[in-house]
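Budget justification, computational time. The allocation requested in the original proposal was used primarily to generate structure tokens for proteins on the priority list. As evidence of use, we reproduce two of the resulting records. The first is shown immediately below.
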Amino acid sequence: MRLAVADVEAMMAEQPGGTLETVLEVFEVFASGSLTNEVYVLDDVSGKRIAIAPRELKERYRPS
């Protein structure tokens, strides 16, 4: 599944204080230096649901 960064940011705004993992309902979010405007959600990677997001987006919503 592909999600626009703007859509993910809107989801994050609806859940203040939430993590990308929680909002996207994934086990882990990995950063990609080549992605710019989409987040990829992969349903079964070694039995887990993961996401690949632009590095800037992951850094912006990294837990403090």
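The second record produced under the same allocation is shown here.
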Amino acid sequence: MYKTIVCFLLLLPCLCAAQRVQRVKGTIVDKESKISLVGVSVVVTDITPPIGTVTDPNGNFVLENVPVGKHTVSISYLGYQSNTMNDVLVTSAKEVVLPVELEESAVKMKEVTVTNKREHINDMALVSTKTFDVQETERYAGSRSDPARMASNFAGTQGGDDSRNDIIIRGNSPQGVLWRLDGVDIPNPNHFDIPGTTGGPVSMLNSKTLANSDFFMGAFPAEYGDAVAGVFDVRLRNGNNDKDEFTAQLGLLGTELAAEGPISRASGSSFLVAYRYSSLQLFQGLNIKIGTTSIPNYQDLTFKLNFPIGKKSDIAVFGIGGLSNINLIVSNLSQPTPQLYGESDRDQYFTSNTGIVGATYSHTIDQNTYTKLTIAETGTDIYAHHNYVFRDPATYAVDSLKNILGYNFLTATSVMHWYLNKKLSAKQTIKFGIINNYYHLNLIDSSRQYPPTEQQWQQRENFNGGTDLAQAYIQYKYRPTDALAFTGGIHAQYLTLNGSKSLEPRLGMRWALTNKDIITAGYGLHSQMIQLYQYFAIDTFKVMDNKNTGFIRSQHFIVGYEKILAEKLRLKLEAYYQYLFNVPIETRIGSSYSALDQGTGYSRDFPDSLKNGGTGYNYGIEFTLEKTFGHGYYVLFTGSLFNSQARGNDGVYRNTDYDTHYSFNLLGGYERKLGAYSTLITGIKVTLIGGMLYSPVDTASSNKVGDLVVVDSQRNTLEFKPYFRTDLKLGVRFNSKKVTHEIAVDLVNVFNTQNILSETYSYGLYQQTHGAQSFYLQYQLGFLPIFYYRIDFGIKRRSAIDDVGK
């Protein structure tokens, strides 16, 4: 007996250590009607004994005393398809909130269990869709907590530009991607936004505020319009309505603070707010090269306030704001220095500000009907000023500065999206809605940069006014059995500026042949405006030549096959063909220009007069082999083989700027407990992408104009060497009693591989070498270590009685 007591006392610290626990809670509703489900069974199945509970009359559940670590949560309800959630991270600092939607079984015979990772959130999405998991932005090496960079790991998407996070889907221009936030279309959500692009060097989207979201790569449902490549449908999560929780993070990319908690526990209202600031000055202090000698400055704020109104309604107010500026000053340099984010022959002053604020009203009309209205105001204010630096060719000393470019693009958009979702039966659902985007623009632009000796200013933009894009849609889902589902819909849109209109059918099918074999297929006709500033560009006679340019059109055909190889292992194959028509091309005879080649970089595109006479096509095959997280590790292998071509006014099909022919990603990670409280985090990513295409240079014309001029008839006939990069991630997570610490370093391009970005023209180099050399190769980022330290903690829950007393 004595020995037993002694052993117990010796083991007591270990036994106490094992009791570091946390709450796991959430709300479970019907997927189509959003009605709360009562009596749903929720069980943490991977611990002994299992911890379980059932939902209350409001669909809420709470699992108390769940040990820290990663767990499997099983959710089941009679008459509904069960769901198993793997890889649920539980820490000592923050409660885990799991909003869950269950789908009613079409045939109420036996329980159906979904055990693999959910492929989409949108109920109408059956093909070419991927759920963006917020945890993956933190887990994947090289993602930098950026949703867009994380998406480049998916089959069919690629990055290949270290300086930007543009999403290139199946050889399409990144301009073809639509960004949506909490139901409304939004402008480019990146710092240092260039008009006419959808990417940038740093995302404004903070992963600490995001819920899981949908990423569409083709034939997307009818509720999405004004996009021909893909859709990133991002959602902000609600704050914890039961406990005050905080996050602080310090790293080379900046400082972050986040807070969430209840506004009133009695009503269930909550707040969520996150702020981030960075100057990247630490990189310069540590002599780490980031592609520029200047210091980029940026900051952003994200918030969401949620107010339940009884049991049937909900009001949410949300917003994102971002400020960014950089002064690329080269006049103080004593030797030529390439600038990855701009041009090396001029001082550039650049400011980009973006704001999004909106409100959502959701209401459950009856047991089968749900409606939602979202209104928002978005705005961008982008300013640039360039001074060309003339130098002494012999000494490189500055001779003089000349103002050569200035523009200020201000765009404010009033956005509305209303829809009604009706669950007709367990087998049928219908959804219809209206979207309206009113754009008010104030666009000013003047240039005299080509050649730099030009004295006469050319005004390229001078517009103050507005236009409206109206959209409507209806979509229908039919599930004759749990194994078979069909969707169909129509999307319509109309641009008041020039009367452009479209009517677009969408179809989808998903058929589970067995529990392990799934076939998918989809078709969609899609349309998109050209970039707004291009409609209002003026020629030397002050005429807006491109005002009447119509929509780009695109037809998507997709088939796919998925094989469940094991509980956490699956193989997915998908083949596609995309035909693009009504593509804007130049009216100039012999021109190879196509709008399908624009959309990246740090400059705007001002083509000659346009017409909708171009065509293009993309086709390819993609594969994904994924072992989801379990037993301490995960593996993801994705690849795509594709061809992307476009035809200009010369009638010749050529490879587009984004046709790298192939793209492969291999990712893996391993987590191991170092003790009762600590976890080692490791990750690796290897990327191989075909070489970027480029064109032979017309040297004489380039020297005359002072800018890069290619041989038009030989566009994209040359190729750089393939892009190759390896990233590593190393970190440790430690759960103390009330606080979680995480310290990690992302080693981007760990082998310092020299990847070529472009061939760049320099008028200054032409002058220095007296015409012997005027071009140089621009290289991408080398080795880049990104360190961060994060701390999460919570404060004891306030009493509901205290809230009522207030």
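A brief technical remark on that second record: DSSP finds eight helices and 44 strands in the chain.
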